[in-house]
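Key idea: predict the complex, not the pieces.
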Amino acid sequence: MKSKTIKVDYLARVEGEGSLVVNIKGNKIKDLKFKIFEPPRFFEAFLIGRHYTEAPDITARICGICPIAYQMSSVHAMERIAGVKIEGPIRDLRRLIYCGEWIESHVLHIYLLHAPDFLGYEDALQIAKDHPDVVKKALELKKIGNDIVNLLGGREIHPINVRVGGFYSIPSKNEFLLLLERLKWARDAALETVRWAASLPFPDFDFDYEFVALRHPDEYPFNEGRLVSNKGLDIDISEYENNFFEEHIAHSNALHSVNKKGEPYFVGPLARFNLNFDKLSPLAQEISKEVGFLPPVTNPFKSIIARAVETVYACDEAIRIIDNMDWNTKPYIDFEMPGGIGYGCTEAPRGILYHRYKVGPDGLIQSAKIVPPTSQNQKQIERDLYEFVNKYINLPKNELQWKLEQAIRNYDPCISCATHFLKIEFIQE
Amino acid sequence: MAATKNKKPKLAVWKFASCDGCQLSLLDCEDELLQVAEIVEIANFPEASRAIQSGPYDISLVEGSITTPHDAERIHKIRRQSKVLITIGACATAGGIQALRNFKDVREFINIVYANPKFISTLQNSTPISYHVYVDYELRGCPINKYQLLEVLNAFINNRKPNIPNTSVCIECKRKGITCVMVAEGKVCLGPVTHAGCNALCPTYNRGCFGCYGPKEGSNTSSLSNQFEEMGLSNYDIVRTFRGFNAYSDAFRKESEAYEK
Ligand code: SF4
Ligand code: SF4
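Result:
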């Protein structure tokens, strides 16, 4: 029987280090492994003994691509312990900085990491040779996201201005107003991005997924909400660990996050879109309708359209917040830290990011658990790959390999956020 | 680069234990990225491209610290293929935040984090790249400053010395005319002993510096600790203050160890 092996030792255009091995014998998959070989960095261990106020700065370093998500999940968990609720302008500013991160991260992924797959290029710089204007525009759009994070956070990677209780300081109104005009341009560029993304060729591939995302009664979710799914889940985030577990799958060498029934689930832009379409801004709903992109969408390759729609939403929301902001607000609220257990779950660009901390009365962290979105999607990614090979087993090897890489990139996996979910296969000296 | 006069210098970007933030700085150069790609050949940059060219490379940018036996070997191979090797960020120049393990028994850490400790193979210490191979230039910061990165690339391409100030964050504060957050507001600040490069970012946002650019050469850490003591910090507070993203850099490590007893 003829056999073929597809081996991608080092997955390109994903953040962090992963690999893929597929072994096909005749018409059957013998073995399929989506591996993560990012070295462990032990965040959950060295957070123990640190002061709770240090958590946002430390956990940001898990991932340079979505540091805001880590900062937001940790501040919310700490505030939950202290029993404080952040409302009004500070809450809005937190949404604003999240808008910046979504724009920056989504545009990076759409144009620089994912578009080359659809257009048959190795990277965005090659696209730039043929279509310089497209890439220049993409970079300008990405920059506006970064500039929001820069202004409110101090810098785009590992912002320094986020603290438990709010922000260290709030930049002046004028500086935000300068962003407004550019955001309006960005919103138009994002609308065009939706039209463009919807016109891409998508492989025929649909699946009955369990989509999981936050849902808030009044708004598209960033920081708050209940955890819901299209299969009937509806829980407070404090119940996360009763509903999701990590299990050891022998064949894949990795600990996978699964639901109660031991099955994979799907988090990220497509899950949010499917579960929260009604909470998108009117403009974002309108453009979705215009291009015929309506929930439920069950083809993971179309995540790129969901990212584009969310970029429109993030521009819209940023404009709304800046327009309505009361800039004379105190940057943070004071509170006492009594200690206890707290949970935080926010919507990173790639999906829900769960934190749980136990803090002592002295303010020092006693235990920490962090489950990043890539950890939660990992089993689903592997299942997608399996189903895809099954369906397209007769594709020429090169084409199949590229499509499989693309199937991984659908999730925009951020492997550097590897915290505690993986088995590392290094041999001890 | 003299050796490849009529050809574009080949650039490679490598990753070890890290958060990807420092290499992302290159993709965050929205206004300059396309120009950079015109001047250098991006020959190996997996985060950005599927196309990988083989070595040798004229310039290697290395992100991340060495934490596994496998990586300790890999860095030698990279050194052999690179004419110039530049480390980017606190992970690569000082071991990074993951060097906090160096003060503990790493087996304890494995047990806390992993359900199946026997699967994990890792080194006791997280070490900077310069512990393993010769490094031509170290760019500091967690993350690096992207304008400094462009300056360093530019300098090496044109065979000149990078123009990166080696003063302290304090000097940057003074230059910006920012009121001292430690003197005026009693905030804990590592600015006096921290390498410049961020343009005094934290004090500008009304908080103390937590040392993400690592120690400035010849910094007087013990005098700063005395000040911290006077401000009422406990020994453990001082240990934590020096144990951040550059905990394993000589100056910060020694200072934290002095207060650990
Ligand atoms: S130095 Fe900081 S920003 Fe750079 S890779 Fe390490 S953790 Fe990330
Ligand atoms: S911690 Fe210090 S070195 Fe880092 S950005 Fe803040 S002021 Fe600059």
